[in-house]
Write a structure and sequence with these properties.
alpha/beta, 8 strands, Four Helix Bundle (Hemerythrin (Met), subunit A), four-stranded mixed β-sheet, 2 domains
């Protein structure tokens, strides 16, 4: 077997650093190292195997070799806007497991099971059981009202002027600083959550509370953790700006740093994959087993690493 195809044993996602943002350079593999090369030729080595997610901002180009290496070690590549305030696209390395995709889809298609999953997400998010005899749409409305109140509470707590959550990607500059901070923060959360969803072998598009979007399940899972990680960080940065302690040009960068620290402080990567399993288990559906009549693959699979990454 060629050295190019030696099986790797990627680091489990729970043991990785969360995210790194790259801008203004060529991302490539040089001398077997994953590097960012700036316009003067200076190389900065990126420990891609120890990262869950790599955010590529405008001004970056990436080679085929770099994409291949990121895929092999299980680091999700995400293309974002300047300052990480928009999430445009994500490269999806292989590794999704058919058994988990079928399990997730079965729970999402069964309305009784789906309601159980939504109720579980509600209880994890708010620390109390969801109201009884409520449909998914009714729980969505109740949740939306509670979230609006939580935004108001955090704004008052941090002394931030707040007129509601308003965001339009087409007119980004029209939003106030608090909303831009929140959008930048949630972009970080979505990228990292998508990395975890893919790493565990599930489908980002098959959601329960959210439906019809490519990242519906990512939004579902991110909402569970949003108010214990990125939302307080975003309001804290907005408060510093309103008090004149932070220049406008540094807002998005500061939000990213605060989010990184919040992910580490809350042990986000250690929690999210077990939480996904806990939420789906609430459906009451047993994971599907391999069909006895199934045909073995023509090329045997190479087992590398363990659960929690795209090995």
């Amino acid at each position: 077997m060629s050295d190019d195809f030696i099986p790797l044993r990627p680091i489990p996602i729970k043991d990785r650093a969360a995210i790194v943002f790259l801008e203004y350079g060529q991302v490539d593999v040089i001398d077997n190292a994953f590097v960012l090369v700036d316009k003067t030729g200076v190389r900065v080595q990126i420990p891609v195997g120890g990262l869950a997610c790599l955010m590529l901002e405008p001004g970056t180009r990436i080679s085929h070799a770099a994409v291949v290496l990121a895929a092999r070690v299980g680091c999700l590549l995400v293309w974002v806007g300047e300052g990480g305030v928009r999430l445009y696209a994500a490269g999806q390395p292989g590794g999704a497991r058919a058994d988990r995709l079928l399990y997730q889809a079965k729970a999402a298609l069964d309305e009784v099971a789906r309601l159980k999953v939504v109720r579980k997400m509600y209880s994890l998010r708010f620390g109390e059981e969801a109201p009884t005899r409520r449909s998914v749409d009714q729980l969505r409305g109740i949740e939306g009202a509670r979230v609006r109140e939580m935004y108001k509470h955090l704004a008052r707590l941090h002394g931030v002027t707040w007129a509601g959550r308003r965001y339009d990607a087409a007119t980004w500059s029209a939003a106030d600083v608090a909303n831009r901070c929140l959008s930048s923060a949630t972009s970080c959360l979505y990228g990292l959550t998508e990395a975890a969803v893919l790493a565990a072998g599930y489908a980002p598009a098959i959601g329960f509370l959210h439906r019809g979007k490519p990242l519906s399940f990512v939004y579902d899972m991110a909402d569970v953790f949003k108010f214990e990680t990125v939302v307080p960080a975003a309001f804290a940065v907005a408060a510093r700006y309103e008090k004149g302690k932070l220049d406008a040009s540094l807002v998005e960068r500061t939000v990213r740093i605060q989010c990184r620290d919040a992910f580490r402080r809350e042990s986000f990567l250690e929690k999210i994959i077990p939480t996904i399993a806990e939420i789906l288990a609430a459906s009451g559906i047993d994971p599907p087993i391999e069909a006895p009549e199934g045909q073995a693959p023509a090329l045997p699979e190479v087992i590398s690493g363990n659960d929690g990454h795209r090995g």
